[in-house]
């Protein structure tokens, strides 16, 4: 029984490594408040300009999370926003 569990876990880890980590892994920033994509931009603040993460929809710099996604998913989200389609991305945190 333990052998089967180790085999199953090893296969899952190997598939994740081959199909995600080594293939087309990408990172994306998502705002936790409005569930939209956040960007790294240079914005004006009192006393000058600052470059960093910023959500243009809710105009916030707080609660922005970096997630690992497939490159195709990141490309699709950016293309959809260029076409004026708004994607709402749900965040679920895994308990370890």
From TrEMBL:
Keyword ATP-binding recorded: no
EC number from the UniProt entry: 2.7.7.6
Keyword Nucleotidyltransferase set for record: yes
Entry's Gene Ontology BP terms: DNA-templated transcription
Residue ranges constituting the RNA polymerase Rpb2 domain according to the UniProt record: 1-69
Family of this protein: Belongs to the RNA polymerase beta chain family.
Name recorded for this polypeptide: DNA-directed RNA polymerase
